[in-house]
Design goal:
This protein is α/β, with parallel strands linked by helices. It contains six helices and seven strands; from the N terminus they run ααβαβββαββαβα.
């Protein structure tokens, strides 16, 4: 897609400027194979990949296609740090149009937040840092009726405090 192509071109340029060797790989098939049995046990009709923003839609579509399921995408704004704000001016039809313009009309995407009710959701992220975004997203999805929420992450960075946020010592369920 144009967007991912531009990102790769920029990454290649930045690596050349810094004299770094770049290897590009796509872990989609590894992720799909890792979670396929769990997704099948949950039921394909009851499971979706959730994309919390435009930046993750491409990864989400790739994983959903590999598993034979759909995507539910939503808009968010990052304020600063770990603070996430659900875009109150979110126009689902405009967001879906932007996704279709970027990824094609055959992409199995819904932008209706009501579609998450009673669904098992998987979120494919590129990075886990503090866990703040994961928790905020899980809470939003739970409040909107998600049956279960699962994260699969390309590279966990796990900065200071991540473990306490995701696995509190009191044993309280985070997501």
């Amino acid at each position: 897609t144009r967007r991912s192509s531009d990102l790769i071109k920029n990454t290649i340029r930045f690596c050349r400027e810094s004299n770094l060797k770049l290897y590009i790989s796509n872990p989609t098939s590894l992720f799909a194979n890792a979670i396929k049995d769990r997704v099948l046990a949950m039921g394909l009709a009851n499971t979706r990949i959730f994309s919390p923003d435009m930046g993750s839609v491409g990864r989400s579509i790739n994983l959903a296609n590999a598993l034979g399921i759909g995507v539910i995408a939503a808009g968010k704004k990052r304020l600063f740090g770990d603070q996430i704000l659900v875009n109150q001016n979110f126009d689902a039809s405009m967001f879906l149009q932007a996704i279709q313009n970027e990824y094609g009309y055959n992409a199995p995407v819904s932008c209706d937040i009501n579609d998450i009710k009673n669904k098992n959701l998987w979120i494919r992220e590129d990075e886990l840092s503090t866990g703040g975004t994961a928790i905020a997203t899980a809470n939003k999805l739970r409040k909107n009726g998600a049956k279960s929420i699962h994260f699969i992450v390309t590279h966990p960075v796990c900065t200071h405090g991540w473990k306490i946020k995701l696995f509190p010592p009191n044993g309280e369920r985070v997501f």
